[in-house]
Amino acid sequence: MDIDALNAEFGIAGTLRFVEGRSGFLMIEVENALATATITPFGGQVLHYRPREAPDDLLFLSDQAHFTAGKENKGGIPICWPWFGPDPEGQGRATHGFIRCLPWTLHVCEELEDGSTRIHLGITDDEATRAIWPLPFELGVEILVGSTLAVTLVSRNRGDHPMRITQGLHSYFKVGDATRIRVLGLEGCRYIDKARGAGDARIVQDGAITVGAEVNRIYEAVPARLAIEDPVLGRRIGIDTRHSRTCVVWNPWIETCREMEDLGDEDYRRFICVETVNTASEVIEIPPGQEARIGADYRVESL
Ligand SMILES: O=P(O)(O)OC[C@H]1O[C@H](O)[C@H](O)[C@@H](O)[C@@H]1O
What is the fold, at CATH topology level, of the domain defined by 27-302? Predict the structure, then answer.
């Protein structure tokens, strides 16, 4: 569908329009009384979100992000599905699943009474997805752009057998200086340390998380309320999660950042990923015909 046709069918005068963005990628631009946001139907990914009164974007988006068909884009909130992390069956399939690299279909764009804007996108199995992963599914993402940003992922099993998935909202938060932030809410939680290659050993988090080396951890049994305190941008990002007891915290630090072609050399200072996930021991089994959800609400508060 071309941009004019999309604007005619789904555009909302003065609030929501479709535009050609970086490298010609289709973008949905939202500007309502409460916030501005950019979403791309490729991967159902939120790329930008800024509440009206806030000076800075909530999210980091890499200047080196691929914006090439079939490749993932680093930044915003990529959706990892139907597996989070490496291929669970060791077949060499892409990290974090395949759904973040595919175009999704637009279902609904609407204004709600409180002034927020609701966008609903979806993707269903087809020949191409079944060649990678054989199961019949329907996946939807609901994005609410208001004074907070709310993202909810709904997975439906369209098959006759139970469907096992892991998944995640791989949120990249913009920070003033990663070496000066504190991630709060995970104190006392046990984590698997992927950066240290310590296998499945669980380590107990002592105090707030700070970044002074590569951080790549899977926290288990986490509370539903987390926060990132950022003295440089003078703000606190609040993350309220739904249907997730697992959280991945990732910052690549200097060497890994340099090795990644889709990050600039200094980008490790510009973001922290605090990801709302189901992974490790939190595998989700969806019975035939049933749904599973995962979601998060993000808010920005001044310090
Ligand atoms: O480069 P990507 O496939 O998007 O993954 C980026 C990162 O995502 C997660 O946070 C993982 O824990 C990291 O190991 C990985 O490097």
Answer: Beta-galactosidase; Chain A, domain 5 (2.70.98)
